[in-house]
Specification:
Length: about 425
């Protein structure tokens, strides 16, 4: 029998208790999985199960050290504090460790991986990236023989929910309030909106897929705070939608790690991912493109992934946190975002005057940026004096686009701040 201690009995913890109470004796086929101890902040809080069935600990670290469990499950959250102390205590006490906490692993995964290896223990973290979407297992097992080339993911359900609500005609603020009302976004949604949560996840996946040490500090991060209804409507008229993408790819100068909003052609696979759903395209040298999708949040969906890790451990599966032992991970150089090349969409609001398009085109030419198409829309806001210019460029580096935007700003012709966004190249999302 595999004995489990669960720290954190909130959305995910309660889902996990419910799942294990229903399936603990069956799913592992001969291996019984049983909860023996639980911990949360408030013993007297009402929960959808009776905590009196299990040994209660006020202190999760004490439970990690002293309980009779074989597997310690951390569902508290936070990159350090009690979650980190409990993780260390569990591994030092020769317990396997399972968590849904991406912040904890993105900041401390290297240390915890080494600790697990010293104690011959496993760390299960499927739920930390994409909840029910089984991407960690896929890369650690089925896709492991491939040389990874590129991972492109929608890894933050809250942002995806907000962006698809905006597509349905809501303002950013209304869509965010709806995400909070549904329980998708935290009371403080900063980590989601800023792209930090997706950065945690792609840093973990990149270490796993490219066998490198964790490098959260190398992820360039841009969130969705400046994506407005006007911008979403404007790009939709030209056949695109906006998604927050987390990307990790091998480029000639090493590895590029980044999170930013991107234009995708409407109807493409990632564009079709709506609401809180997560999705990822994994591209490897032998497997080609593999598309995985699933519920990226929610108590039951996340508990499903946590339980999967527990049952894997119960069946004796032990794989290092990032696929290889820590000593075998090797660092790659990182390519800065400014050198990353892609097609761009640029949106300028300007006076409706002769010569303005020529002035902008001249700046782009001087910065080595080639235009693919240009459209003018004078209909917006019933504003007869101004027009919107939508420019679509061929491939250009971030540094060239930044320089062009700065020079165009100095022309004194913009009626509002320019908007620039990368376009995912078609062959990346067939
Ligand atoms: N919710 C999701 O959809 C989802 C999806 C993927 C990953 N995750 C990750 O899963 C983890 C848990 O998320 P959640 O949504 O379940 O959080 P939550 O609902 O806020 O629950 C947190 C739990 O931790 C307990 N807790 C807080 N401080 C504690 C302490 N000092 N000692 C022991 N327990 C303590 C709380 O106790 P009380 O109940 O007594 O207050 C609560 O039961 C996080 O790392 C999160 O990022 C969540």
């Amino acid at each position: 029998m595999t004995r489990v201690a669960i720290a954190g009995l909130g959305t995910v913890g309660c889902g996990l208790v419910s799942l294990l109470e229903q399936r603990g004796g069956q799913v592992a086929r001969g291996e019984r999985v049983e909860i023996v101890a639980v911990s949360a902040r408030d013993k007297n809080k009402h929960r959808p199960f009776s905590t009196s069935r299990y040994e209660w600990y006020d202190d999760a670290v004490a439970m990690a050290r002293s309980s009779s469990a074989d597997v310690f499950v951390e569902l508290i959250g936070g990159e350090d504090g009690i979650a980190l102390s409990a993780a260390r205590a569990a591994l030092e006490s020769d317990k396997d460790f399972v968590t849904a906490n991406k912040a904890l692993l993105a900041h401390n995964g290297g240390e915890l991986a080494r600790l697990a290896e010293q104690h011959s223990r496993s760390i299960g973290w499927e739920a930390a990236v994409g909840a029910a979407m089984p991407i960690v297992a896929a890369i650690r097992h089925s896709l492991f023989a491939n040389r990874s080339e590129r991972l492109i993911g929608i890894l933050n359900g809250t942002c995806n929910y907000i962006l698809t609500r905006i597509e349905d005609g809501e303002s950013f603020e209304t869509a965010l309030a709806a995400a909070q009302a549904q329980g998708y976004a935290e009371a403080d949604p900063h980590a989601d909106i800023s792209g930090l949560d997706a950065a945690h996840k792609i840093s973990l996946l990149s270490a796993l897929a490219f066998s490198t040490p964790l490098a959260l500090e190398q992820v360039s991060v841009e969130g969705i705070a400046n994506i407005t209804l006007d911008k979403v409507r404007a790009v939709a008229r030209n056949g695109y939608c906006i998604r927050l993408l987390a990307i990790c790819e091998a480029v000639p100068d090493g590895l590029s790690l980044r999170v930013h909003p991107c234009l995708l052609p409407i109807g493409s696979r990632l564009a079709n991912v709506s609401g809180v759903c997560n999705a990822l395209i994994y591209q490897g040298d032998f497997c080609g493109q593999v598309f995985i999708s699933g519920d990226g949040a929610g108590g039951n969906a996340t508990a499903s992934a946590v339980a999967g890790d527990i049952f894997s451990i119960a069946r004796g599966r032990k794989i290092p946190l990032f696929g290889l032992p820590s000593a075998n991970l090797s660092a790659l150089p990182f390519c800065p975002l400014q050198d990353i090349i892609s097609p761009w969409h640029l949106n300028f609001r300007v006076r409706d005057q002769v010569g303005i398009v020529a002035s902008i085109s001249a700046v782009l030419r001087d910065c080595g940026i080639s235009l693919a198409s240009i459209l003018q829309d004078g209909s917006a806001d019933g504003d007869a004096d101004n027009v919107s210019l939508f420019l679509y460029t061929h491939r250009a580096s971030t540094i060239a686009i930044d320089r062009a935007l700065s020079l165009i700003d100095k022309l004194g012709i913009l009626q509002s701040a320019a908007f620039a966004i990368r376009i995912l190249e078609m062959n990346e999302d067939k």
